[in-house]
Amino acid sequence: MRIATVIIGITAIAVCLVMMRREDVRLRHELQKIQTQHAAVKRDIWDRHVEMGHLLTPASIRFRADAMALNLIQISNAKVVEDSSAATPTSMPSSSGHNQRNLNEPRR
Amino acid sequence: MNLGDKIRYCIIFIALLGGLAFVGIKQGLMIDAKLHPKTPQQADISQMVDDASQGQRIVMPLPARPGSIYATSRQAWTLAAASRQVPSCFVDPKYLREKYDEHDIRQLAQNIADILNSDPAAVYEIMTAQSQKRFVWIAREIEAVQADKIRELNNRALGISYEWRREYPNGPLAGSVIGFRCKDGSPGVGLEAYLDDIVKASDGKRIVLGDAGRRGIYTDIDATKLPQDGGNVFITIDLVIQDILQRVVSDTVSEYKAVWGTGIVLDPWTGEILAMCATPSFDPNTYNDTPIANMTNHAITSPYEPGSVFKPIIAAAAVNTGVINYQTKIFCENGVYHASKGGRISDHGNSYGYITVETGIIKSSNIMMAKIGEKLGNKKLFSLLHDWGFGQDTGIDLPQESPGIVRKLPKWDGYSTRRVPFGQEIGATSIQLAMAFASFANGGELMKPQIVGMVTDPRGKVLYKAKPKVVRRVLSQRVAKETLQALRLVVTEGTGKKAKSDFYTIWGKTGTAQVPGPHGYMEGAYTASFIGGAPFENPRVICLISIYRPDRYKGYYGGTVTAPAVKSVLEQTLEYLNVPHDLAPKADAIDEQARQNRLGDDMRD
Lengths: 108, 605
Known about the structure:
The complex is a heterodimer of chains A (108) and B (605).
Chain A: H1 2-55, H2 58-67
Chain B: H1 3-35, H2 40-56, E1 57-62, E2 69-73, E3 76-91, H3 93-99, H4 102-116, H5 120-129, E4 136-139, H6 144-152, E5 158-167, H7 175-178, E6 180-181, E7 187-189, H8 190-194, H9 196-199, E8 204-210, E9 216-225, E10 232-238, H10 239-255, E11 260-266, E12 273-279, H11 298-301, H12 311-321, E13 329-331, E14 336-339, E15 343-346, E16 354-356, H13 357-363, H14 366-387, H15 414-419, H16 430-441, E17 445-447, E18 452-456, E19 462-465, E20 470-473, H17 477-492, E21 507-517, E22 520-534, E23 541-548, H18 558-561, H19 563-576, H20 587-604
Parallel strand pairs in B: 2-10
Antiparallel strand pairs in B: 1-8, 2-3, 3-4, 3-5, 6-7, 8-9, 10-18, 11-12, 11-23, 13-16, 14-15, 17-20, 18-19, 21-22, 22-23
Helix pairs in contact in B: 4-5, 10-19, 12-14, 12-17, 13-17
C-alpha cells in the first residue's frame, strides 16, 4: 500500500514536472513572439517619429503654409507699421508638442 | 526492521550505488580519453554534434536606437536628427536552386518585381546569377509595406533584414553644427561626433533555440541581453532663426562671390547659441557627396584677423581699466601716424585731429586705437586679451574648436602695440568675437557659449540641463552701457549706417580686415564683418556675420557687405521672437507700405 502511495506520488511529481516544462516552453515561445512584435512596434514608432520630424521642419511648414495661402511665414516682410505692439505675427502655428519652450520668458 | 525501514535503506543503498557508478564511469571515460585519443573521424563526429547543437541556437538581435537630436522651432522641440530601421530584402540563391525548379523561380521573380515595382528579368538575374552563394541583396531600403508583402510570399529562400538609417529632417539646415553619422553608425563630424558617448546605443540580443527550419521556438531567457537606446540631446539652436541666418549668409556669399561666410546668432544673457552657420554648408543626409571642405564649421574652427570689429573690445577694456574714458580726447595725427618703432598707420584717407574715444569708435580710427595701445602697453594689452578669452577655447560643446591666434608676449614688439588694438596681428574665431560683444549687451559679463541645452535618457529623464555660465566679469555695467551707446552711434552716424533699421535700435561695429598671406597681406583679399545686436535698451540677440574674401570689385567693406545682412537677420529674428518694435515707424515707411499694398491690390485686380 505504502509503495503504491510512493509510486503515485512520484508519478504525480513527474507529471507536474512535465506540465511545468510544457508551460515553460509555451511561455518562452510566447515571449519570443512578443519580443518580435515588440521590435516591429518599435520600428513603427521610430518610423512615425521621424516622419513627424519631417513634417515639422521650418521648410515643410513654410511649404504647407504657402500651399494653403496662409500669410504666416514671411514675418519680416509682413511688417505692420501702424502700431508697434501689433507688429507681432498675427498667428504662429503653435506646435501641439509637449516640452513647450517659452522664448519670451524674462531673461536674467 | 519493518517494511518502511527496509524500503528507505534500499533507496539509500541504490542512490549510493548509482552515485558511485556515475563517478566511476566518468573517471573511467576521462582515463580512457587520455589513453586512447579520438581518431580524426571520431573528432569530426564530435564536432558535428557540437555544430548541430550550436545550429539550433539562433542569435536574434534586439535593436537599440541611437539617441535623437532635437532643436527648437516655434517654441517646441523639433527633430533635428534621428534614426530608424529600414527593411532590405535578400535571397539565399543556393537554397532557392536546391528547393525550387526553374518555373517556380521565374514566378517568384515576377512576384517580387511586382512588389518592388522593378523589372522581373533583373530580379531573376539577381536571384540566379550567384547560385552558390547563401546571401545576395535583392533590394535595399525598401518600404515597410513592400517588406510585409514579401513576407506574405512565405518563401524560405527570401528574407528581410533591417538596417539603420540616420535621417536629418531639416536637410542642410544647421548641417555644419549637427554634423552626420556614418552608415555604419560611427560618428562623423559636428555634434554627432562630440556627443557620441551620449547618443550611441548598445544593441541587445536574445538566444533562441530553433527548429530544423531555423524558426525560433524557445527563448533562452538567461542569455538575453536587453537593448540600451541612446540618450537624447536638446540643442539651443532655433531652426527658424537658423533658417533666417543661413539664407542671409548664403545669399551674401553668393552675391559677393566670397570663399566662405559664417554667421552666429546668440542670446547675450545666457550665452545660448540660437543659430550658427557656415557657408558653403552640406546636407548630412548626403554627406557622401559633399567635399570635406564644406563640412568645416568656420564659426569655431577658422580664426581670422578681426580688423575693426576688435576696436570696441580694446577700447572698452581700456576704459574699464581707467586709462581713458569715452570722452578722453586723443590726437589722431590728421590721418597719418608714423609711430616710433611702430610703422606707418593711416585712417583710410580720413583726417582726424583731436577726437574723443567715442568718436574714434564711431569713425573707426586706426590711429586712435594705436594710441590706446600705447597707453596700455604690451603687457596690459596681452593680459586683457586673455581676460576676454582670446587665444583660448571658449569651451563650446562642439569638436575642433580653435583657440585663435595670440602670439606669446615676448614676441610682441612696437608694431604689436599699435596693431593689436585695431584687430591685426591676432586671430580670433567668430564665436570668440560674438561672445565678447555679448558682454557689452549683458552688462559686462563674459559668458560661456552653450549649444547643448539638455540631455535626457531614452525614457526622458533629464540627465543634464545647461545653466548660464559666467566665465568672468570683463567690464563694469557702466562701461558696458557706454560701449553700447558708442556702438549705437556707429549705426546711426558712423560706418555701420547700412545696419540701421526703421523698427529696432540696432547697434554694432563694422570690420574690414586684410587677409594675411605667406608674404604679408594679400592684395585685394579682405574679411568683411559686422557684429551687432538689438534692441538697444534690453538687447535680446547678438548677430555676427563674417564674409571671407568677397570679390573686391563687388564690395568688401564690412559696412557694405555684412551690415545689411546683419540688419536683415536681426529684424527677422526679433520679429520671430515677438520683440516689439522700439522705434516709431517713419511716415514715409508707412506710405511706402501702403503704396506697396495698393500696388499688390492693383496687380491682383
